Amino acid sequence: MNPLRSTILAASRSRHVRHGVESFGTTRRVVDRFVAGEGTDDALECVHRLTSEGLLVTVDHLGEEVTDAAGADATVEAYTSLLSALHEKDLGRGADVSVKLSALGLEADPCGARERAGRILTAARAVDATMTIDMEHSARTSTTLEVVRSLRDDDPSVAAVIQAMLRRTEDDARQLASEGARVRLCKGAYAEAADVAYQRRGDVDESYRRCLKILMHGSGTPLVASHDPAMLTAALELAAAEGRGPDSYELQLLLGVRPDEQRRLHSLGLAVRVYVPFGTEWWGYLMRRLAERPQNLAFFARALASRR
Ligand SMILES: Cc1cc2nc3c(=O)[nH]c(=O)nc-3n(C[C@H](O)[C@H](O)[C@H](O)COP(=O)(O)OP(=O)(O)OC[C@H]3O[C@@H](n4cnc5c(N)ncnc54)[C@H](O)[C@@H]3O)c2cc1C
Question: Where residue 294 falls among pLDDT bands split at 50, 70, 90?
Fold first, then answer.
């Protein structure tokens, strides 16, 4: 892995580095581009802005690695409050929530995490919203997919996420495609060892293309999560080759990343969903975005330099 990427990913786990940034008092300015804000109202405002432009949303309440029951219950409460607030503003129908099982206490209590995910799913269904279970590092892939399958027994629209960087993913794609699942395909945002993951960018991209082909050919709904022009072009070509209409797959991009491209794709009549993160636990998320594109560091450095 690129040494700069490893360093930034290491910083994502450092409380000291986070504290240093916060103490500059620039929190809001630094995160503004990639995070909707810290509170539910910020998320609502962002969802309103995007949906009025015709974009779809999936909202992520930031937070991961929760190990106590109270913290995991607080995650459920954050999502259920968000969903009812979306409903009150008439923004619930068609919205999606992206949930990390580690924020529901997966590590300490997998059964509890499944039960809590079920509570969020019930709240989502009540307002005609859907749910996606985000994918975390590779040690959690199998458990996460098991939980997704169990949730899909309750509601087949629950979406799984698979990461092209992992060597196992082509098999997972095949399996999920045959189950007719909604599947978000991303490259993968975590540092992984060579025995489980492709290390070269070109190999990850080739894996992405192979998985995309499997998903587009299958009976499910591919959710193409990438900002990479080559992957987006491949998705459109494969969809056309498979005779898929725009309502049978989605393109998904992160808030603040290639916003002009998001609008351009939407203007072509394609379904474009924007991943909208919000909450106080923005640090790890922000660092992963910086690690993906070190050019973003310039933006980060400028924000720090102009601290008030
Ligand atoms: C909606 C969504 C959900 C995701 N969910 C998960 C998840 O659950 N688990 C997980 O591990 N990862 C997730 N990710 C992150 C993902 O795994 C990648 O880390 C991330 O998307 C970067 O990969 P990429 O495909 O965008 O292309 P990259 O390989 O990062 O970039 C390829 C090319 O895309 C273009 N590009 C990328 N970023 C920018 C930018 N900021 N500005 C301009 N051009 C740019 C450039 O041309 C670049 O060369 C998600 C990503 C998205 C979009």
Answer: low
